[in-house]
Amino acid sequence: MLYENKEKIEKVILVAVCTDGMDEQDVANSLDELAELAETAGAEVVGRMVQNLPHFNTATYIGSGKVEELREMLFERDATGIITDDELSNVQMHNLGRELDIKVMDRTMVILDIFAAHARTSEGKLQVELAQLQYRLSRLTGKGISMSRLGGGIGTRGPGEKKLEQDRRVIRSRVALLKRELRDVVTHRELIRRDRNAGCIPVFAIVGYTNVGKSTLLNKLCNTDILAENKLFATLDTTTRSFEYKSGTGKQKVLLTDTVGFIRKLPHNLIDAFRSTLEEVVYADYIIHVVDASSPDRDAEIKVVYETLDMLNITGKKVITLFNKIDKLENPDDLLGLNDKRAIMSLPISAREGTGVDKICLALDEVLREDRLLIEKTFSYSEMAKISEIKRLGEILKEEYTDEGIFIKAYVPMELSL
């Protein structure tokens, strides 16, 4: 007789603390997002607990009374673990695990687990392993604390159980090696970027909160089949595609770079580990900010994106904001409230349905024109090579053949030598 082995689904209870100065609705929204993270990681959420405190309990995150209440809830719901909405210190995680005699996870652990499950490229896997090891290294304190991950479940993906996870010196050695390998990746990226810059092709980085439709937009514009799913962090690896569209009397070519989605309380280790990926945004010429227009927490998500960009010192770039998923808006009047004050323009679109996508090309042209030189010049017939360059890199508004030569009115890159 054959038996089918199925991995047991973890049943978890979400735990959060609302401290003085925090908005209760923000905490509720953050817990909703944590529930999505838990489900993406493969767990089933069977309960929630929120405690109002002046500040986090330094020993157990929540108060002692709530610990007792949580123990009863775990028994009643037959839960196998808890997930806290904030990153726990080593002491808090150890004490909660001892008091509850159950698996304790925090938001950071769940995010790292999802990243480990979704990383596809060698670079992505390197970055995930680096972030995981740095996270565990900070918790390798005191005797008798083992970082082995027997039993499976959330937090067990990635490098696997290795002796290095129990030896701080070996982990640091591995971290140093991963950083060197990632530096090689950065060097390779810089060479590619240098080639792009030499070609004077504008680069637009697509950024946004996770699961707002960035990959769907890239697929729609570039006719590609990049993975695009309705889940958090479906896409982790940076993808750059060429996008050519009708502009003036000719065509305009730009590069579109899809990036990893942002999220509340993004672990600092993850930002550090993925800095090489996010550098694509640093070196892009412009930013396309995609927003989920149908999200009830839309304004907070916009704020998180800009806070993350500021954290990475990505400032001063021109931003086009695309309010995506307008097909999900029940009230047409909701379109009137779609605005991003930090963007030079905002457009309502539906990448899935194709609504408003045609206007994106006009927006790209408008942004590019602001940083280009308008020329009106007659070129001799012996200068056809220059006209070819203008057609390849600029936007031709008028092209007229005369006895003296070819009259061209066009917007061209400042660096183009004519």
Main beta-sheet annotation? 6 strands, mixed
CA-to-CA gap between the ends? 79 Å
Proportion of residues in helical segments:
25-40%
Low-pLDDT parts are: 1-5, 142-150, 161-165
> H/E order of the elements?
EHEHEHEHHHEHEEHHEHEEHEHEE
Give the integer mean of the pLDDT values. 83
Proportion of beta-strand residues = 15-25%
- The number of distinct β-strands equals 13
Question: From the alpha-carbon coordinates, what is the Rg to the nearest angstrom?
Answer: 25 Å
Q: What is the SS-derived class? A: alpha/beta
Oligomerization: single chain
Total of helices: 12
Basic shape = elongated
Order of strands side by side in the largest beta sheet? 6-7-5-8-9-10
Can you describe this structure?
The chain is α/β, with parallel strands linked by helices. The protein has 12 helices and 13 strands. The longest helix is centred in the middle third of the chain and has 31 residues, at about 170-200. The protein is elongated. The relative contact order is 0.09.
Entry keywords:
418 residues; alpha/beta; six-stranded mixed β-sheet; four-stranded parallel β-sheet; 12 helices; 13 strands; elongated; disordered N terminus
List the helices and strands and how they pair.
Elements: E1 11-19, H1 24-40, E2 44-53, H2 64-77, E3 81-84, H3 90-100, E4 103-106, H4 107-118, H5 122-137, H6 168-198, E5 203-208, H7 214-222, E6 239-247, E7 250-258, H8 268-273, H9 275-282, E8 286-292, H10 298-311, E9 319-324, E10 345-348, H11 357-370, E11 372-379, H12 384-393, E12 395-401, E13 406-413
Parallel strand pairs: 1-2, 1-3, 3-4, 5-7, 5-8, 8-9, 9-10
Antiparallel strand pairs: 6-7, 11-13, 12-13
